[in-house]
Amino acid sequence: MAGFSARGWWVSKEDGDAVQLKVPMPGLGKEHVKMRVEKDALVIKGEAGKDLEGDDDKGPARYSCRIGLSSQAFKMDQIKADMKNGVLRVTVPKIKDEERKDVFEIKIE
After folding, report:
1. Does the pTM of the predicted model rise above 0.85?
2. Residue 17, phi-psi category: left (phi > 0), alpha (psi -120 to 50), beta (remainder)
3. pLDDT band of 101, cuts 50, 70, 90
4. CA 35 remoteness from chain centre
5. Which residue of 9, 23, 31, 66 has the lowest C-beta tally within 10 Å?
């Protein structure tokens, strides 16, 4: 799965336990990035000052992304992230089917 934001693409891989997101954010370090959860969305914002750009014609490096994630399917309070070489890696753990409150087995009579 992939998505597009104003600054570029984010890519994800999924397994039985979690979704892994990779968000390229060139020119930014972890000190420039803020993440939060709002309702059913992961919000990622980053901004570096002019001092990191080196070219006055370019503005500061900026990034903003909103990724929809259902709080019914993911453990939003257990999201983990790390930043290395301008790439933000985010792990969003899934709620197992047996733990979900919105999944019900229906008895057939």
Report:
1. no
2. alpha
3. confident
4. 8
5. 31
Residues in the chain: 109
Cα gap 109→102, rounded to integer Å = 22
H helices of 3-90, in order, are 50-53
Integer angstrom CA distances of residue 33 from 24, 43, 61, 64: 12, 11, 11, 10
Core vs surface per residue 70-108: b (16+ CB within 10 A) or e? eeebbebeebebebeeeebebebebbeeeeeeeeeeeee
Distances (CA, A) of 69 to 13, 18, 47, 48, 51: 14, 12, 23, 27, 34
pLDDT of residue 70: 84
Asked: is 2-97 a CATH 2.60.40.790 domain? The reply is yes
Sequence letter at residue 14? E
Q: Where are the domains of the chain?
A: 2-97
- Residue pair 49/72 in contact by the 8 Å Cβ criterion: no
